Structures are given as structure tokens and as C-alpha cells.
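Case study 2.
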Amino acid sequence: MRDMGVSLILEGGGARCAFTAGVLDYFLEKKLTFPLTIGVSAGAFVGINYISKQYKRILSVVLNKSYMDLRKDSETTDNVLNMFDFLTGLDSMLTELDFDEFSTSKFKFLIPATDANSGDLIFLNANKSENRSSLFKMVSASCANPIFSKPVTIDHFNYFSSGCSDRLPIIESLRLGYKRSVVVMTRKPDFLHKPYDITDDLKDRLKNYPNVLDVMRTNHRKYTDSKTILDFMAYNDDAVIIYPKNEVIQNSFDLNYSRILIQYNEGYKCAKETYINIKNLLNKKEDWYG
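Prediction:
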């Protein structure tokens, strides 16, 4: 298989992706580009700004009060978020996304999500978005964690967050022929996801989606396997991993501006520190046969 080049993988993590925003803004400064970007969950929400080349757009975050009001307005009667309404509402508080720039980009952007019926991990092609609304449907699908969100419907199919089935899709990147990767993680390398807490409430909420429950029970193992592969790639100089050395974000829904800014600056700093390694990775040319 021909080496397709270097992919960029953006881990999710809700508000922790402020770190990712700092990394990507440094990339924009340096005009670093990648033929493939995979944005997982909130990584997709942040990543679309990188493809649309909107420097520091994600820093235009709302204050906690506005955020909490928006979250409340996006809840359904059973206190479950409508993720599409929530993300489009949050996006509307920022400078408008340059969809023209995004839609004409020559770089591929994939958004993973979990098929609510089969439990399979699928990859939505954001480059095929017809408009801002269809793009945000894809992003919303990747962010729709069933613990706090109802599924997102796209073309009569229901989707939940990619976090249910695969939080770190390095295997898909390799399958597509991208032997090398830059991976932006939102937790330290020694962090390992624990199994989901499958509560009775969650079982009831997903009673029509038993396969999603099944993959949620085991996806922490897939994350561990993906980390093992990624560590092996990094050991062989086929991956650069960027991660926060300081974690100040308290939880996925922490939108305290001061903490967001600290985590953003941490991302910018870490990207700057790894710039030479990234350039070396981008300049590494070789054929790969598997």
C-alpha cells in the first residue's frame, strides 16, 4: 500500500479541547497542513475551524452564564440534550464559520460516529457537507454521548458519539494508508479510560439501541489497544503525540474562561515545542507495503 502521508487525529474531550484549539492555531500560524484530519467528538467541533482557517475563532467562548442558559434551552423534557441545537447555538455565539473556505478545502476531514442500530463505528465525510447545517449535523452526531444526549439523525440513520465505540481512531487512519500521524490528545499519555458506568437509567434510555450498550461496555479496551499502537508508532518515529502537561479543565463541560485560556495557551506552547518533530515527520517519505 502506498504511503498516503501524515494524518492529523484530534481526540475528543469536551471543554478539554481548548488545548486542541491552541495547537491548531499554532498550526495555522505555521501553515502546517495534513491530507487527512479525523476529528473525534469535540475534536471535530474545534477541528472544523482549522479547515476553515479561522485563527483564534474557538477562543470566542461564552461566559458560564450564557453557556448554562444555552445548555438548559437545548434540553428535552427528560433533561437530555439535543446536541445539534446545543452546538449550533454555541457556534452562533462565535464569529460565523467560513463554510465557503471549509467546503473548498482540498484536505479530507472525517468525523467518526457510532451507528445507533448496529453499534458500528462509521466515518462521516465532512467534505460532502452541502451547507453549515449538514456539517453541524455530522459534528453533533460525533458529540452525542448517550449519557447526556439523544441520538442525532442524518439521512434517516441515528448516530451517537464516536466515544461509544472508538475514542482514538488510529486504526482507521492506518487502514486508509496514512502510516504516520500527528495525534492531539486532551489527557496525559498515562490516562486510561475506565469502562462506562452502565446505569439503569442509561439502560432504559438505550433500550432500543442494545448494540450501543454492548460497545460502550468494551470500548475502553479498544482505547488501550489504540494507545499501544500509537506508542509503538511514536517509538519508531512514525507519530508525534501532543498532549497537555498541565490539565486545568475540571470536566468536559467546564467553560470557565480563565481555565479555557490557560488550556488554550498550553496547547499553543506544546505545539510550538513539537514543531521540529512534526516537520521531520512531514518530510519523512517512504513506501509502505502491508
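The mean pLDDT is 88.
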